[in-house]
Amino acid sequence: MKAHWFWRPINNCPGRFVLVNEDPCLPLVKLVPNIDEATDHEIDGNRDKVVVLPIEGGGLISYIRSNGTVLHTLNTDAGFMRKLAQLGIEGGKPPG
Predict the structure, then answer these.
(1) Which end of the chain is more exposed for a tag (fewer CB within 10 A), N or C?
(2) Which residues contact 13 (CB under 8 A, 6 or more apart)?
(3) Please, is 14 exposed, middle or buried when counting C-beta atoms within 10 Å of its C-beta (0-12, 13-18, 19+)?
(4) What is the pLDDT at residue 96?
(5) pTM for this structure?
(6) Radius of gyration of the chain (CA)
């Protein structure tokens, strides 16, 4: 996944990367064709809907804004679990 898209490291967030892309509305299915394992979350205090998709080696966390734009993040195992804990989302164990 990391080789097919341009991911920029997120400052002060080890193991987390943000997708740099010209399409601000790029749906998750364009990044990962099989999104059956993705879960949607409404988080108190967070205005964006959060979509979580565990993948081998970590996971994707996407933030869907009210204006339709999407921010996709790619996370290592450690970065994924740390961010899920910060968001108060349980589970999200990567496959394998």
Answers:
(1) C
(2) 79, 83
(3) exposed
(4) 47
(5) 0.90
(6) 12
Q: Indicate the residue type of 64.
A: I
**Residues 68, 85: Cα–Cα separation, whole Å:** 25
Is the sign of the CA dihedral 5, 42, 59, 18 positive or negative?
positive
Give the span between the Cα atoms of 25 and 11, in whole angstroms: 23
Tokens of 11: 């400052």
Give the 3-state secondary structure of 27-96.
CHHHHCCCCCCCEEEECCCCCCEEEEEEECCEEEEEEECCCCCEEEEEEEHHHHHHHHHHHCCCCCCCCC
| Separation CA 7–CA 57 (nearest Å) | 15
| Residue 41 scores a pLDDT above 70 | yes
